[in-house]
Specification:
The protein is mainly α. Helices cover 95% and strands 0% of the residues. Helix 1 packs antiparallel against helix 2. The protein is rod-shaped, with a radius of gyration of 19 Å.
């Protein structure tokens, strides 16, 4: 569980860094930096969503397993 929390925090940090980089690129007119920031921010968001989906599926499977185990008793 601790590893999952650390991964989630890292993705939030990466989103913030990407957003910062994107905004600095906008302010300075550096299109390359702006694009890199946008890509980093989007990539971090996707990883965060994938982790949420993974957690939801694992939770559903655990619930189903517990339900089946209870029915056997």
């Amino acid at each position: 569980m601790k590893g999952v929390i650390i991964m989630a925090l890292e993705e939030k940090l990466n989103q913030a860094k990407g957003a910062l980089k994107e905004n600095v690129g906008k302010l300075t007119g550096d299109k390359k930096l702006e694009s890199e920031g946008a890509v980093e921010k989007t990539t971090a968001k996707v990883k965060d969503v994938v982790e949420d989906v993974k957690d939801a599926v694992e939770g559903a499977l655990d619930g189903l397993k517990n339900s089946v185990d209870n029915d056997k008793e």
